[in-house]
Amino acid sequence: MVYKDAREFLGALKGVSVVDDKISITDRQLLKKDMNLLVEQVIMSDDENIKNLSFWLIWNIACKAGVSASSIQSFYQARGRGEISGFTVPAINLRTFTYQAASAIFRVANKYNAGAFIFEIAKSEIGYTGQRPVEYVSLILASAVKEGFSGCVFIQGDHFQVKAENYLKNPQEEISKLKVLIDEAIRAGFYNIDIDSSTLVDLEKETLLEQQRNNFEVCGLFTKFIRDKQPQGIEISVGGEIGEVGKKNSTPEELKAFMQGYLDYVGKLKGISKMSVQTGTSHGGVILPDGSLAKVSIDFDTLKRISEVARKEFGMAGAVQHGASTLPSEAFHKFPEVETAEVHLATQFQNIVYDNLPLTTKETIYTWIKENLAGERKETDTEEQFIYKTRKKALGLFKKQLFSLSTDIKNNIALKLEEEFDFLFKQLKVENTKDLVDKYVKPVLVEKKLDDFGVLKELGELEGAD
């Protein structure tokens, strides 16, 4: 049920009480149903006050339940010192079915006592999935509470990217736009942010240092901005990138050139914790004319060599692999073998959702794509290729319709996703990393006030509510 009256909405919550802006958990079992109710308001309500009230409730209920949005910085520093190793942290982009998918991830995490995993969403995904940072954080935290997970939850801004074309035309405008997004993300609870200024690498320059100059200077500029904006007591994990995904493979020499300039730029400030590199993948995979995915070969030797340099010379966690979710299943066990710090996974989860949607729902979405995105179809694209490459852009528009599918359909999709997460957690060897996370990452509870979410307190809905 979607509520329009805040007092009635608060009265429907059974596992918590709200009195004078203070939240108390009264029944842990009923709290699980409350999470479903709160998420429904987040996704389905058109009333901004109800939505913002839901954001505030979820954040503070999570804090009361021992769930803390956190930075993975100190954990990655421990890896840089060689104190922990042998696993690869999955960074998972949830474009759709976010609440169900995140719940599945937390079930797998509880099953394997896992703590080293990240939820993330890219700058571009925020737009086409219709998930602003505060909504994304709310869905993740609500799912953690519902599944009884406690401890640190890592939420990351992925590919907070500088567009080269815009930067070359007007650097300050492009930088200002990304600063606005970063500020929004930090305020929402993104305490891990990957800056992607690799788009500014100029391979026409004579030396590696000059090729990477715009990249390391812009990454350094945003590092300073993030350090200025981060909440007290939290040191945000910042990631850099030296190789644009889908382009030239990265080298250890490029890493060294980047870090030479970057460390000079940031001075005494805490720098990046990891480095994203290009090893032969592309986002979304390569779709063949019949709609199947082409096999991709990753240069694992590059990952291994760059990770070694990143740790031994610069104290970082290691290299990060992008565009990996559509790789063949037999490839994933190799990431921890070569000590890859982090691997980013996205498209395969979207594919699982689409593969298990009712035919009528899928046809409705595909019809919209053909009518509204025809201009994005290349002359050489088959219909299968065109649909596959563009269907992600329908997710925001159809978010409410997908959320409104029957419980049986959603449970089936969640089960399929859970099977995939189970496989990945085992392949990436993140079982029993919860204790390591608890050892190295100390939760910092950032209290959120009603005003932080724009709730109209003067309406008086919260006074004496229980």
Fold blueprint:
Blueprint: H1 6-11, E1 16-19, E2 22-25, H2 28-44, H3 48-64, E3 67-70, H4 73-80, E4 89-93, H5 98-112, E5 118-122, H6 123-128, H7 133-146, E6 151-161, H8 164-169, H9 171-188, E7 192-196, H10 208-229, E8 237-241, H11 252-266, E9 274-277, H12 300-314, E10 319-321, H13 334-337, E11 342-345, H14 347-355, H15 359-372, H16 383-390, H17 399-403, H18 407-427, H19 434-440
Parallel strand pairs: 3-6, 4-5, 4-11, 5-6, 6-7, 7-8, 8-9, 9-10, 10-11
Antiparallel strand pairs: 1-2
Task: Describe the 3D structure.
- With 466 residues, the chain is an alpha/beta fold.
- The protein has 2 domains: 6-65, no CATH class; 70-357 and 405-440, TIM Barrel.
- The protein is built from 19 helices and 11 strands.
- An 8-stranded parallel barrel has the order 4-5-6-7-8-9-10-11, surrounded by 6 helices. A two-stranded antiparallel ribbon has the order 1-2.
- Helix 12 links the parallel strand 9 (274-277) and strand 10 (319-321).
- Helix 3 crosses helix 7 and helix 7 (133-146) packs parallel to helix 9 (171-188).
- The protein is globular.
- It starts with 5 loop residues before the first helix and ends in a 26-residue tail after the last helix.
- Residues 283-288 and 458-466 have low confidence and may be disordered.
